[in-house]
Amino acid sequence: MVQINFALKEINCKLVYYGPGRSGKTTNLEQVHKKAPEDSKGDLVSINTETDRTLYFDFLPLNLGKVAGMATKFSLYTVPGQVYYNATRKLVLQGVDGVVFVADSSPHMMDENIESLENMLENLKENGVNMDEVAIVLQYNKRDVDGAFPIEVLDEKLNSQGWPTVEACAFKGEGVFPTLKKLSGIVIAKLNESSSSGIGSSSPAPKKSAPPPKPPAPVSAPPPVALEPAVQEQQVEEAPVNVAPPPPPPVAQEPAPAPVPTPTASVEANNESVVRESKTDIIAARLAKMRSEKGGPATNHTTDKEEVEVEYRPKKLKSKGFVGFLKGLFGK
After folding, report:
1. Which of 137, 127, 70 is nearest to 96 (CA)?
2. Cα–Cα distance between 201 and 195 in angstroms, integer?
3. Is 60 exceeded by the pLDDT of residue 300?
4. 205/198 Cα distance (integer angstroms)
5. Angstrom distances, CA of residue 219 to CA of 215, 216, 223
6. How far out from the chain centre does Cα 267 lie?
7. pLDDT tens profile 162-177
8. Distance between CA 135 and CA 15 in Å, rounded?
9. What phi and psi, each to the nearest 5 degrees, are found at residue 166?
10. Which is more confidently placed, 254 or 34?
11. Which of 42, 67, 154, 204 could bridge across to 58 with cysteines, CB 3.0–4.6 Å?
């Protein structure tokens, strides 16, 4: 997957050297780094673990052209050759743009070449790489060894897909740069094909204007549906509204009659006067009786209270105390 640096106007592509162990992958990177101009290459970095080693460095070729006005920069990687380092192999292949499969031309290495090639294709598929978009070049290395396989045999066993091939002797530096130039040229060509989508340009490619939509055909309105009488009456008539009757006017309450004073005091006064008069009559009657017994005039008796008080002059009785007075007055 290409990485675009708009500040530096660079497109960074990732290239990986893949193949069986001791096929010449590391030798290719060391030859490129050794012969590349100092101002166009980075440091050769080796990532060493307890069991494997991965090399990579950045390389900026100056004669491979530009993509959408931007310079192309390549990051070159190698993978461990042994199959049991498959986890590291798969990790290095993530986001790759081009692969150099370095095949060993030695007569005893055909099985290792086939196994490593199948492993490469499987890892690319598992990483979700589209085989139509990634660039692949086969390098038949060690062409100088005795009994090297003929090119026809190598193509028959390894190149069923028709990928470009390059003969090389990496130890001597032969075919190293032609292999890199062929692979990087295919990567740049693929980038140029996709540059129409706006890679590196400030404005995207113009889109074709879609034809104006056709006006919709007039749709005739459906005939009105006659409602049944019961339905029409139900829609026209309004539901009766229950209106509460107005409250009755307030009734003026008649003032309560004033309480009639009870003639208690006057009745008591009359009773006292009656009692007094009865006592006076009793006293007058007794006095009249006493006078008649003594021979006094009985005609002078009157029921009038005032006359009794004027005419009667009681004598002083010679008795002791109030009890004697009463005995003398009323008799024994």
Report:
1. 127
2. 8
3. no
4. 6
5. 12, 8, 12
6. 96
7. 999 999 999 999 999 9
8. 9
9. -140, 130
10. 34
11. 42
Q: What does the pLDDT look like over 305-330, one tens digit per residue?
A: 444 444 445 555 454 566 666 666 66
Q: How far from 67 is each of 2, 9, 44, 173, 195, CA to CA, in Å?
A: 11, 10, 26, 29, 8
Residue whose C-alpha is closest to residue 197's, from 189, 184, 206, 188 = 206
User: Chain-wide mean pLDDT for the chain?
Assistant: 74
Distances (CA, A) of 23 to 109, 138, 172, 226, 307: 9, 12, 14, 91, 177
Closest Cα partner for 191 from 270, 263, 97?
97
pTM: 0.57
Question: What is the maximum span of the chain, computed from C-alpha positions, in angstroms?
Answer: 206
d(CA 111, CA 105): 11
pLDDT the model gives residue 220: 57
* Paired strand residues for 75: 14, 58
How far apart CA 135 and CA 72 sit, in angstroms, is 15
Helix (H), strand (E), coil (C) string for the chain: CCEEECCCCEEEEEEEEECCCCCCHHHHHHHHHHHCCHHHECCCEEEECCCCEEEEEEECCCCCCEECCEEEEEEEEECCCCHHHHHHHHHHCCCCCEEEEEEECCCCCHHHHHHHHHHHHHHHHHCCCCCCCCEEEEEEECCCCCCCCCHHHHHHHHCCCCCCEEECEHHHCECHHHHHHHHHHHHHHHHHHHHHHCCCCCCCCCCCCCCCCCCCCCCCCCCCCCCCHHHHHHHHCCCCCCCCCCCCCCCCCCCCCCCCCCCHHHHHHHHHHHHHHHHHHHHHHHHHHHHHHHCCCCCCCCCCHHHHHHHCCCCCCCCCHHHHHHHHHHCC
The region, left, alpha or beta by phi > 0 then psi within -120 to 50, assigned to residue 64 is alpha
Contact 164, 175 (CB under 8 A): no
pLDDT of residue 211: 57
